[in-house]
Write a structure and sequence with these properties.
Length: about 325
């Protein structure tokens, strides 16, 4: 059997095992927008985040993911009673008074962009989406948002990184880099209050045939939808310390369910620590800082528990955030977690 065919089989097994046609993220709790377009425009500033994830360090050709996201509300952003702002500026913006004074956002729209580059060996997937969401107050303390993202996905195969038994292999169209452009559509809903959030979303909604050959005998590859359900709750231990446990369930047919458990402990929302567990895959430690009203940074390290732990030195992930056009100088997210 040709090397390329063996390679494709191995890649397919890997993707079925970890359900990773789309990247996975340890720090989803900080940027659920990366998996759910309904969050678009949830804050009262331009929320910009850049992330970098190096998975399974030490394993050659392991996945490396980079992303940039930005989203903002559309509305009267200078009016505290509209859009998403709630005035909790101060030393402890999410203390117990935040809980008692919380109010739902007025109805408003949001727009945003998501750009992701995910590379695994000779395969890479670059996506660019524009997102839209509408936020509606269901009750004085409860909001519902619905959102959609649409764009394009470019899947590339660099044949220079392959060694073929037969230089003229019908499984690939030509030498060099082969690009395939596909439409990309995502949908989501997000229910949120001061104490909890619940979201559901589907990425890669439109299944697409994926082949790197002009020969129809080699067009069995497909992209499949990725479904996510996330939920979390905020507990106030006292006026300074909050604890936020959360869970994410991911389903990609025919793979088994993927489950992530996450706990974040924040002190006066200036510094926080956390831990996470991904079923049959890893344990993680997380640390983050909210630096004033402009900048935040977080880091996580995954300890691999799967069979890859014999060759992997773990996974690194870092996320940098900016709060632009932040009129009220809030020092941490008010509606996100």
């Amino acid at each position: 059997m040709k090397f390329f065919k063996i390679f494709i089989i191995l890649i397919g097994i890997c993707k079925i095992t970890v359900a990773q046609q789309k990247p996975q993220y340890t720090q989803y709790i900080l940027n659920n927008y990366i998996i759910n377009p309904a969050i678009t425009g949830i804050e009262n500033y331009i929320d910009v985040k850049a992330g970098y994830r190096q998975q399974w360090t030490g394993l050659q050709n392991a996945p490396v993911t980079s992303y940039l996201t930005a989203h903002m509300p559309l509305g009267k952003s200078n009016d505290w009673g509209s859009a998403t702002s709630f005035g909790m500026v101060g030393e402890n913006p999410l203390g117990t008074s935040y809980k008692s004074n919380y109010q739902a956002s007025d109805p408003h729209h949001g727009i945003g962009i998501v750009a992701v580059v995910d590379k695994t060996g000779p395969l890479s997937n670059t996506t660019f989406d524009i997102t839209y969401a509408y936020h509606l107050g269901l009750a004085p303390r409860l909001n519902l948002a619905v959102g959609v993202g649409a764009g394009i996905s470019k899947v590339s195969l660099n044949t220079a990184d392959l060694t073929l038994e037969n230089p003229i292999d019908p499984a690939i169209a030509n030498s060099g880099t082969i690009n395939r452009l596909k439409p990309d559509v995502n949908i989501g809903v997000w229910l949120y209050s001061a104490e909890f959030f619940f979201g559901a979303s589907v990425q890669q909604l439109l299944p697409q045939t994926l082949s790197f050959s002009d020969n129809s005998s080699y067009n069995s590859g497909k992209t499949v939808p990725h479904a996510f359900v996330t939920t979390g709750y905020r507990f106030w231990l006292n006026d300074d310390i909050t604890v936020i446990p959360s869970v994410m369930v991911k389903y990609v047919k025919p793979a088994p369910l993927g489950i992530d458990f996450n706990t974040k402990i924040a002190f006066r929302d200036k510094i926080w620590v956390g831990g996470a567990y991904r079923k049959d895959d890893s344990f993680s430690g997380l640390l983050g800082f909210n630096v004033g009203s402009l900048f935040n940074i977080s880091y996580s390290y995954d300890f691999t528990t799967s069979a890859l732990n014999t060759v992997s030195r773990g996974t690194h992930e870092i996320v940098l955030g900016l709060m632009l056009n932040n009129h009220y100088k809030v020092t941490c997210p008010q509606k996100l977690w």
